[in-house]
Amino acid sequence: MVSGRPTARPWLPYTAAIVAGFAVIAAAYLIVRPAADVGCTPLEVSSSIEKDVLLGELAERYNKSDRRYGDRCAVVTVHGLASGASTEALAGDWAAKQPSLPRPQVWLPTSTLWTGQLRLLDEAAGRPAQTPGQYPSIANSPLVIAMPQPKGKVLQQQGPLGWGEILGSSGRTGWAAFGRPEWGRFTFGKVNPNLSTSGLAATIASYYAAINRASDLTENDVANPAVTQFVRRIEANVSHYSDDIVDLLKDRAEADLSAAGTATPTDMSAVVTQEELVYQYNEGELSPTRGEKPRVPLVAIYPKEGTFNLDHPYVVLPSASPEQRDAAADFLKFLQESPQQQSLGRHGFRDHERKASDPLAASVGGGGGGDLTYFDPPDPTVVKAILTGWGTLRKKANILVAVDTSGSMNAKIGDLTRFQVATRAAVKGFGLLNSEDQVALWSFSSETGQRPKSPYSEEVRLSAFKPEVLTKEINNLHVEGGTALYATVRAAHRHMLDRYDQSRINAVVVLTDGTNEYNKDNNLARLLKDVALDPDRPIKIFCVAFDERSDFATLDRIAKASAGKAFDARDPAKIDDAFVKLVSSF
User: Fold this and answer.
1) pTM (2 decimals)?
2) SS3 of 225, please?
3) Could you confirm whether the keyword tRNA processing appears in this record (predicted)?
4) Same domain? 130 vs 271
């Protein structure tokens, strides 16, 4: 499986928020490019990237089968592109948006949520809709609440529970509500809904649970104060948002298989994800050693109100010629035949009729093998309203940003200094935070003439986020000295711990181009112990490494010790992407 990393911002105007950022960092993969048979119709397929490699393998199987429909044949090529990025490219100039990829005649996004968004974009542009209808599925995967097996079993013993009972009200008393007070708080991991289909589906599911219906969600429902309060209560128990659910699960798998055999350092009791990823996790497909199964598997919980289905629609686009439409129909028929459905099933997908295989049901252990109640996809305008409102309902953050101002930041990257490149990206990224977030700014290097008593200093105290203030102070920073990385991280962590707010995500963000150069504090082991995650008062550390000299391995260890994340921007071309990912965590 190849995971994608789409990006977008929930605080931008809607069309940009739902699709624009995806193109910035969404990975694209050319899966199979066979030599075209003479006389066969070429067919280009764009697949979402959780299934692109598998679709490429199936296309190769198709091409080698000597298959005919009537007296004709087809040669299928598959490329992988995140659903949001392909939505944006189809809505605009494909060649300009995706110059390395040919325009497809068949589109296989993760969900019909994206076909609806493309329809809205076409309508806004005054052109005929490319996706006006309903589309057949090649596979399905319901949204589930995934939990480590011991905790999942405790919830299953409670009988049927709903979204609010699991993810909402339980957060007030934590695991004491389920008879296990020693397990502490109940928080969960979720992907930013502007970055991920599963994150968007999870948000929509919260609204459906609030109205206690499985269909006909309206804009009036979305605006109903009782409904928004329900959704807000669920969002309040998010540990922190993620830019990539697959990375989150891979980190858990890595920790599970560590030599010490310890549990993953996390305050998350659960993760909202799609069922096939629970299967892949349990079967070792997300393990650092592929095929090595976790010590503690995950259990899939299916809330009693119902869940959202990711339906993987098969969309033949208007750009297809009559010959290509015939070829597309034959390839769909091929994908829905038993051998190909079994291949999809071996990767944890349900078949095109939503049926789960026995191995899937046994692996996820959630009792979802039978019939499930599925929420209907809302009208695209309702999805727009949900995403517009999510920015105010999401959990707010307290963030301390520590910027490296050591002398090495004066090194040149093209016509700019390293400091200018990094801080411009930071200003751009943090400018997308919510006005209700609180942000502090520190600078750090070593003791200097301007800062003789400490290697770090507070430039902006923790207060309501004002982008113009942050921008002004960053632009006024002075570059000089060495890099007191460990001392600064420790002090910043303590500073935020002293100001811990349980109603918010509490985090330290470290922007650095180098390694620790401060002899007064060079004990990494002690630092890792000092910043280790406290599940009751988690302070997450997020690091951005933006030069090839950066000690990314150490930054990654620091981040993981706190259940945070390190972002690799050692290639200067990736620094904007890294900040988009970073800010999506809040």
Assistant:
1) 0.80
2) helix
3) no
4) no
Do 282 and 420 lie in a common domain? no
Q: Tell me: do 218 and 82 sit in the same domain.
A: no
Which residue intervals of 11-111 are DSSP H helices? 14-15, 22-25, 52-63, 83-91, 94-97
Do both 375 and 292 map to the same domain?
yes
Q: pLDDT truncated to tens, each residue of the chain (586 aa)? A: 333 333 333 333 333 443 433 333 344 444 544 444 568 999 999 999 889 999 999 999 999 998 999 899 999 999 998 888 899 899 999 999 899 999 999 999 999 999 999 999 999 999 999 999 999 999 999 999 999 999 999 999 999 999 988 988 666 678 888 889 888 888 898 888 877 788 889 999 999 999 988 899 999 999 999 999 999 989 988 888 887 788 888 888 887 877 444 444 567 889 999 999 999 999 999 988 888 999 999 999 999 988 999 999 999 999 999 999 999 999 999 999 999 999 999 999 999 999 999 999 999 987 666 678 899 989 999 998 998 888 888 889 999 999 998 888 888 777 888 888 888 888 887 877 888 899 999 999 998 888 889 999 999 999 998 888 888 988 888 888 889 999 999 999 999 999 999 889 999 999 988 789 899 999 999 999 999 988 889 999 999 988 777 889 999 999 989 988 898 888 777 777 787 778 878 8
Residue 11 belongs to some domain of the structure = no
**DSSP class of residue 68?**
-
Residue 403 CB contacts under 8 Å (≥ 6 apart), including other chains: 422, 423, 426, 441, 442, 443, 444, 474, 477, 511
CATH number, residue 373: 3.40.190.10
**The dihedral formed by the CA atoms of 183, 187, 189 and 195, expressed in degrees to the nearest 10:** 180
Decide: 436 and 395 in contact? Cβ < 8 Å.
no
In whole angstroms, give the CA distance from residue 239 to residue 532: 16
Residues 161 and 304 sit within 8 Å (Cβ to Cβ): yes
- Alpha-carbon gap, residue 46 to 43, rounded angstroms: 10
Can you give the residue range of the structural domain that contains 279?
A: 141-311+359-390
Residues 274, 142: contact at Cβ < 8 Å? yes
Interstrand relation of 28-32 and 74-81 (parallel, antiparallel or unpaired): antiparallel
- In the numeric block, which tokens belong to residue 191? 């992907």
Task: Give the chain's domain count.
Answer: 3
Which tokens is 105 given? 């005649």
DSSP labels, 527-576: HHHHT---TTS--EEEEEE-STTS-HHHHHHHHHHTT-EEEE--SGGGHH
2 within a domain of the structure (yes/no): no
Long-range contact set of residues 167-172: C-beta below 8 Å, sequence gap at least 24: 167/206, 167/234, 167/237, 167/270, 167/272, 168/230, 168/233, 168/234, 168/236, 168/237, 169/233, 170/237, 171/233, 171/236, 171/237
